[in-house]
Amino acid sequence: TTTSTYYSFYDMVLETLMGTLHPMEIRLYMPPGEKLLRDDTIVHVVGRVYAASSTRVLMDAVSVMAYPGDPSSDEYEDGIPNNKVVVVWGLGAVLNNAETDPDSNTRKFNLGVLDYVRD
Q1: Contact in structure between 100 and 107 (CB atoms under 8 Å)
Q2: How buried is residue 67: exposed, middle or buried, by Cβ count under 10 Å (0-12/13-18/19+)?
Q3: How many C-beta atoms lie closer than 10 Å to residue 29's C-beta?
Q4: Is the pTM of this model over 0.85?
Q5: 92-94/111-113 β-pairing
Q6: What DSSP state is assigned to residue 68?
């Protein structure tokens, strides 16, 4: 028997806590006939990420929750929570000592994680 898997690809922008913007592509499994997300829809995504320092961020979505409403409406973003918290789960090794950013008072460090997402 032959089976097929269907994905939708979405181009997005990832904004860091420092305001830096990174191009991002999300790959979302979608059964045949599933409705696509409208342009400019805000989504909460849980997924596996690959982020090389000089390329676009790639994400395989595990769970996607689109915020309801009409993205073309001026009031659409009024009901969206201002959630600027990034949560990362990873099994790996911390590659250097943590440094504190003097402007934002956040700690940062490099983490080596061995897990294949895609390329």
Answers
A1: yes
A2: middle
A3: 13
A4: no
A5: antiparallel
A6: P
- The residue to which tokens 């934002």 are assigned: 104
Write the DSSP assignment of 70-103 as a string of letters: -TTSTTGGGGS-----------EEE-S--EE-TT
- Closest among 77, 60, 63 to 115, alpha carbons compared: 60
Structure tokens at 84: 């600027």
Report the length, in residues, of the chain. Answer: 119
Q: Is 60 left (phi over 0), alpha (psi -120 to 50) or beta?
A: beta
Q: Report the alpha-carbon distance of residue 59 to residue 50 in Å, rounded.
A: 6
pLDDT digits (tens, 9 = 90+) for 56-70: 888 888 888 888 889
Structure tokens belonging to residue 104: 């934002």
Residues 1-11 as b or e (16 or more Cβ within 10 Å = b): eeeeeeeeebe
Structure tokens that stand for 28 in this block: 């979302």
